[in-house]
Amino acid sequence: MKNKNLDMSKDEFISVGKKLINWSAHYLENIESFPVLPNVKPGEIKNKLPQSPPESAEDFESIISDLDKIILPGITHWQHPNFMAYFASTASGPGILADLISSTFNSNGMIWKTSPSLTELEQTVLIWYRKILGFPENFKGLVYDTASVSSLHAIAAARENLNLGIREKGMSSIPKLRLYCSEHAHSSIDKACLTLGLGLDGIKKIPVNENFEMITEELEKAIQEDKSNGIIPMCVVATIGTTSTTSVDPVDKISEICQRENIWLHVDAAYAGVTSMLPEMKKYFSGIENADSIVSNPHKWLFVPIDFSVLFIRKHEVLKKAFSLVPEYLKTNEDSEVENYMDYGIQLGRRFRALKLWFVIRYFGVEGLRERIREHIKIAHQFAEWIDKSESFERLAPTPFSTVCFRYKPKHIKDENILNQINEELINEINNTGKLFLSHTKLNGKFTIRLVVSGIRQEERHVKEAFKLIDGISKQINY
Ligand SMILES: *Cc1c(COP(=O)(O)O)cnc(C)c1O
């Protein structure tokens, strides 16, 4: 029996720690030798794992050996530069190491007193992040795990902002509330409405134009119609960088409507928010200063390991009003002078996440981050150009950021059903190679392939190879 009742010894911690740091470094060094998508069937990994826990202690050698033999073969390699599906998210060296320190402290930032550095670093690093993105000073930043949870809190604040006494009385005795978003808004907005008691009927999906942007006239119409039916317009969610095509809703026009009608404006910029650090991308953020809340995920495109989402909110006191509940055992002498993060949401416990963003920003510098994001956009635009120039492919949406929507379209095929079948087969063939991972969406009934450049290890050569592979496989498809 080793170290009865005690944790791992210092010597063992160092030797295993070195092994695992080496393991991680080796993994990242050789990431391109793995198939991006694992070749496993459902249940295959589970079947290799013992169904009962070990009664007696095991040594670390055997744990690491199973990591290699059982776990690694079932990993989808998000760190792989040929992971170009969804919104590729990658973790950088400094981000990974920050996670180690965070776990080493194992601080819980429920309140200021339970780790002053956790609270004060988070406050500071979010002021940095706000400055990097160029958002106005009156936005306060808060860290949540995911954009889904950030948006949930923003929409809860929008609901509290109506001053209907929902905090006390619940939803049962009030008129129907409405949230508006485009047909292309992320499903997390629907989930927030499920959670907050608005229900799916509490959402009005506003149609989009040919560029997949919310039509503001339709928004206005919907609001007036609701008002005349006694429904209370509660919140508009505009998206900068929608999930399917990365289209940008006209935030400035939407914000005028929201101000006039006194409706909370939440902006979902989970993926594209980071591009606000580039002067040439500011055009996509016009009107953002009039939003009530904005979400941006450093874990998506800023090389911070998952999870790390930032909610910027102007009326943070409303959010606090919605959620603050202080039990006796959590009252402290400093309450009037400090921020207690438990007041701003559902959860009490809070991981020391700010270290990740702090390490990443300091290690790369703002200039280094700008260069990387700018390079991703450049590479993606190159790919879009190859698609546009090719006789057998077509682009299906504008490419404002680093996501390209396209399909294979041989000249002589006009039938939409056949085109859909061919493209579905094409993406399956591509993903089966293990050399590239792409995802898809449907746009106006058209099966659409998406390619995203946002990973820290992605270079021009990867996108070149990707195009070659896609082009090559498309030529082998029979129809
Ligand atoms: C990715 C994404 C989300 C969801 O992000 P999570 O952090 O996984 O909850 C929401 N909205 C948009 C626009 C996104 O791109």
From TrEMBL:
GO terms, biological process: amino acid metabolic process; carboxylic acid metabolic process
Keyword Secreted found: no
Domain of life: Bacteria
Keyword Lipoprotein in record: no
One GO CC annotation: cytoplasm
GO molecular function, one term: carboxy-lyase activity
Matches recorded under Pfam families: Pyridoxal_deC
UniProt cofactor(s): pyridoxal 5'-phosphate
Keyword vocabulary terms for this entry: Aminotransferase, Decarboxylase, Lyase, Pyridoxal phosphate, Transferase
Recorded family membership: Belongs to the group II decarboxylase family.
Name of this protein: Aminotransferase class V-fold PLP-dependent enzyme
Native source organism of the sequence: Stygiobacter electus
